[in-house]
Amino acid sequence: MSSPLHDIWEAASASPYQPSVSKDSQFFVGAVLLFTAFILTGVFGLNRSIVTLPVLGVPASLAFGFGAVYMICAVGVYV
Question: Where are the transmembrane segments (predicted)?
Answer without folding.
Answer: 27-46, 53-78
